[in-house]
Amino acid sequence: SHTVRLRLDELPLVKGDFILYIFLMDERLLHVFDRRIVRSAFSVTAERYEAGLFHAPHRWLVEEE
Description:
This protein has strands at about 15-25, 30-45. The protein has about 60 residues and is mostly beta strands.
């Protein structure tokens, strides 16, 4: 028996309810050793609605030709 852990220091998800799909596979993604589906895994709350899955800090750059 083994335990596999993943640590994400940041995951800027937007507001919503999420299902978590977890797969433990070989390095070539050919063999599935184990899998789990966690329905209603977690919810993210926020004051405002944003479209999409996550919020990526960004900025627009416009270059003149």
